[in-house]
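Record type: ASSEMBLY
Status: queued
Input:
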Amino acid sequence: MARGHRLPRGDGRAALAYLTPALLVLGGLMAYPIYQLVLISLFDYGQEQVSGGAPLVFLGLGNYTELLADKQFWTVLWQTVGFAATCVVGTLVVGAALAVLATRVRTWARTLLFLAALGAWATPAVAGSTIWLFLFDANFGLVNEVLGSTGFSWTFDRWTAFGLVAAQVVWCSFPFVMVTLYAGIKAIPQEVVEAAALDGASTVRTARSVLLPLLRPLILVVTIQSVIWDFKVFTQIYVMTSGGGIAGRNLVLNVYAYQQAFAASEYGLGATIGVVMTALLLLITIGYLRALRKSGEEL
Amino acid sequence: MRRPGRLIAELVTVVVAAVVAFPLYWMVLTALKPADEVISADPRPWTLAPTLDSFTRALTVQSFGRYFLNSLVVALVVVVLSLLMSFLAATALTRFRFRGRTTMLIMLLVVQMVPVEALTVPLFFMMRSVGDAVPLFGLNHLGSLVLVHLAFSMPFAIWMLRGFVAAVPVELEEAATLDGASRFRFVWQVLFPLVAPGLVATSVLAFIHAWNDFLFAKTFIISAAENQTLPLALQVFVKPDQNDWGAIMAGSTLMTIPVLVFFVLVQRRLVSGLAGAVKG
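Status: finished
Output:
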């Protein structure tokens, strides 16, 4: 607002005209569906209700109590948390390590690394998942050939399947972390590091006491961003485990909601899972906003 | 740093780059291999008889060209509309004084965090109703995908463009006003060209978002095979136990190339654009 008073013509009517198209789209396709999502989650909304064969029954929080009493929901929830945590840690460790590595090599090597990372980053999730599936294919995959384990199915067992999907997710999401952190490290003035060295600080000490605090806000941004992305992975799980694995043992919340709604026609229950997921992510968002404010960011 | 240390670091870098790039190499290689080499139990990391057979199969038998076009239409329409609307909104939010501005900015930030995947159920029913009135924007039509991706890409686009609009000095607008330019003229003839770098970065993200979408295409395009987009079409190839891996990899290659080209062309602007958005 500091600059605002210098604009003599700022007025509500012009602003409204400029904002209307965006507001219409966002209101109609974001705000209204969010309201509808909550509404549907309060009803018993199945195939009969959709086709008009049965009356709508208001359940109140019935879907929620049903969900919370459902053992599969809790399994899926913990699986989602574990899977997302694995992906986040993997992405951050790989991305940070490579960002540091990139600062220690000459330009040609760095360009090579960045080009490869850009390729992984740009690959559409469906294509990426399919490539990884083929590399790990039981009969024709290169990995089984190299390991001499032809015929071994990586997607059959619950944990190898999760591991494979997590590896694919890390492959396509570490570049964002690497590029961001590399830019952050590069932005730190060389004098700061030199001053620390003059004061007799070791490399480890410099990294921990000087560089890490300076990079903290950026690390926070990439961490939260990764948490949000990895918590709602859909495509990779759906494609690589054929819709959630045998008997649904590779389900995560997002795929679970989709299966409940569109495979089992339990739209009410699907919406309920959607609400729970949104609530969990909003909690993370609030943490994000507070952390941003702490690091001096302003609206 | 001492030389041996740097050499080791560079060696590691080269190995890592090779590992990261390998899946993409394998994709292109498999797409170019003749059919018998693809399903050989002894896969080799090269081929002596490259052929475009797999691409031909993907384009003719599975009419991949049609889906490619569908994806392109959706992504391009989303990019153009989202840029125009986001630019206008960002200008208003940055340059105009009005009540509720701060509230709107906070809403914008919150809306970015909503997992749009959770909205499949209400949006599915909305598109069904919309389709009764305007078939083009209903289920089984590309218009429904344009609508949702437009909405999904806009919050971030507005957020990002805000930084670029704010970077244009207010003095410039004052000068334009003194010269007798209307606000409308200033916005389109001065501001719009000046925020072009931001528009590039924003359009890439919107394009990729729409191009990569799998969930909404799967939910909305249920029975109209001719209106499918690439991610779904690729799934059609995948059949239990008798996958045509050559065609699948050819399809994946066709799907990846536009995004890759886009990325490489604008990588510098993308990084500076993202940095601008973070700095806000």
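Annotation: Residues 63-279 of chain B form a domain with the MetI-like fold fold (CATH 1.10.3720.10).
Annotation: Chain B has two domains: 1-51, 63-279.
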